[in-house]
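Technical note accompanying the year-one report. For the benefit of new consortium partners, we illustrate the data format agreed upon in the data management plan: each record pairs a sequence with a C-alpha cell string. No post-processing was applied to the example shown here.
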Amino acid sequence: MQRNALTVLIAGLFTLPVQAAEIPSLDEIVVTATRIPTPVRYSLSDVSVLDRTAIERMDHASLPELLSSLPGIQITTTGGRGDVSTLSLRGGNSGHVAVLIDGMRISSATQGTTAIQAIPLEQIERIEVVRGPVSSLYGSDALSGVIQLFTFQGTGKPAPTVYVGTGSYGTTIASAGYGGQIGDTRFNLKAGVEQSDGFSSIKAAKGGLYDMYNPDNDAYANRNASASVSHRVSRSLDLAARVFYSKNTKHYDATNCDAFGVTCTANFDNRNLQQLESVQASAQYRINDIWDTSLRIGQSTDFAKNWLVDPSTSIVTIDEYRTRQNQITWQNNFKALGGLLSLTGEQRSVDVGSTKSFIVSEQTTDSLALGYQARYDEHSLQVSGRHDRITRLGEHDSGFIGYGYQFAPAWTARMSYGTAFRAPSFNDLYWPLDTVNFFQGNPSLQPETARNREIGLVYTAPGIHAGATAYHNKVSNLIDYVSGVAPSWIGTMGNVGAATLKGVSLDYAARRGPWSWKLTYDALNAQDDATGKTLQRRAPHTGSADIRHEFGRFDLGAHIQATSYRYNNKANTQRLPGYAVVDLDANYRLDPSWKLEAKIGNLFDQDYTQVRSTMSPFNDYAVPGRTFFIGLRYSPRQP
C-alpha cells in the first residue's frame, strides 16, 4: 500500500462509528508516571492505561500485539508468536524503553532490551505506558518511555479463574488461578501454558550462501506462573511478596556458517530458550499523616540459550547468557509545600554470566531521585531530578519539569521538558574479540543522552476521552556499529551520531449507547541527523481503530491496524510497503461467571512484510495468515 492510500485509509478510520476500547474514568489512577498514585487527568505525561477488561478484549493476542495498538508504539516481529519482537516507542531504539514488572526492572544486560515476547498476557492484570524521557524517575534506558506490567493481586471473596482456548497453527492456551482476600490478607496464584505448531519464520527461499529459508514449522511453547501475597499488619504497616516466572521456547530459521563463513546451511533446528524470573518483598509504613515510606528488595533474572550448528563439522554449540539484577528501592513520600514530595534511593547490581568470556561481568548503579508534584486550583506542576552513579560509566543527571493548565472543566493543556540517558549494554562495551563475526566491544563508550520537549492537549469527560501530543526528542551520542579497517577488519560500537525524533500522537475513545470506539494515529519523523535518512523500520504513519457493539450478553468488535511504508535498512534503499490488517472478535457471556470468546485474525488474509533480513539474499520474515481462535473463560464476578 502506498503512502497516499494509507493516508486515505487512516482518514476513513476517523469517520467510522467505532469501537469499544476502555475509556479512562475521571478517577483512573496511574502510578508509573510519577511513582506516586495520580489521577490520569492530572498527569503531565503522555500515558496509556489498560486494565484487565481491555486486555481480555484482545482475546489471544500476545503482549507485543497488544502494545502495538497503543499510541506511539511500533513493533516488528521476526516470525510468529514467541519470536523476537523489537519495540520502538516514539521512534526510539528497543533499548530506549525501560520495562518493569511490579516495579522491578527485568531485562538482559547483554542485549540491553527486554524479551517482551516471553511475557504472557494471561499473567498481566494491568499495563501502564508512559511516553517520553523519564530517566528522572527510572534512570538508564527510560530515554523514550517506560512500560510497567502488573501481575494479579487478590481481591474480593477467594475464587478460582480458568481460561482455555485453541485455534489455528495448533495454538492452545490454558491458565488457572486462585485468589482473593481473607481478612487483611490478599493473595493470588496463577499458572499457565501456551503452545503452537507455528509456521516457517521465513516466507520463501531466495537462493545464495546466506539464504535463511527452512520449510519446517517453527513451534513455540511457554510455561508461566505468578504468585502474590500481601498482609495489612496494622493501619500503618503493609507487607507484600511477589513472584513471576516465564519460560519461553521458540524454534526459528537462521543461516548457520562455519568459522570461515564459506560453508553455510539453514537445514538445522535453530531454537532459543528465554526464561524470565523475578522475586521481591516489600514493606510500606505510614509514619504519620504527612510521611509514608516503602522499601522493596528483589531480584530479577533473564536467562537465554541459543542452539547453533557448524555445518562443516556438524558440531552443535549452545550459547548461554544470564543477567541477574539485585534491586533495592527505598521511597519516601511527604505532604509538603502544598503538594507531594518524594525522595527515592535505589541500588541496582547487575551480574552477567555467559559462555562468552566478558572482560567485565558486574555493574552497580547507585541512584538518588527527588520529585515534587502539586495542584494549585487549575494549575498543575511536576518536577523531578535524579542522579545516577554507574560503575565504570561515571555519574549522570537527568531531570523533568512539567506544567498543566485546566482552562475548562474537561480540557487540560500541558507542556514539559525532560532529559534522559541510556547506558551501553554489556555487548556494546565488553563483547570479547570475535574473529568469526569481526567484532569486539568498546569499553570507552559513553551513554546516549536525550533532550525532549513536548506539548499536549487532553479532553476528559464521562464517556469520552481525547488527547493530542506533539514532541521533539534530540538523541545525542547515539551508539552504532563502526566498521573495521585493514588488516584486522574488526569492527566495534561507537558514539557516532545523533538523531531527531519528532512527531504527533492522537487518540480518541468514546461510548454512546451500545457503541463504543477507540482511534489512534501517529505521525513520526525519526531521522539520522548526519545523513538525513529515516531510521531503520520506523513507519512515518501508523493508525488503528477499534469498533464494538453490544447486544445484551453478546458483543462484537473489529480492530484495524494500519502501517505506512518504512525503510528496512539504514541507507533507505529497501522500502517495505505499508499494510492494514483487520481482526474480528466476539464475546458471549453465558452467565455472570462464564464467557465464550472468539477471534478471527487477519480477516482478509493479508500477506505483508514487517521485517526483511539486512544480509543478502534479504529474506522476508513471515507473518500469520488468516487465523481462528476460540476460548472459554471462567472468572466469577465479585458482589
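Partners are asked to follow this layout when depositing records. The first strand starts at residue 29 and ends at 30.
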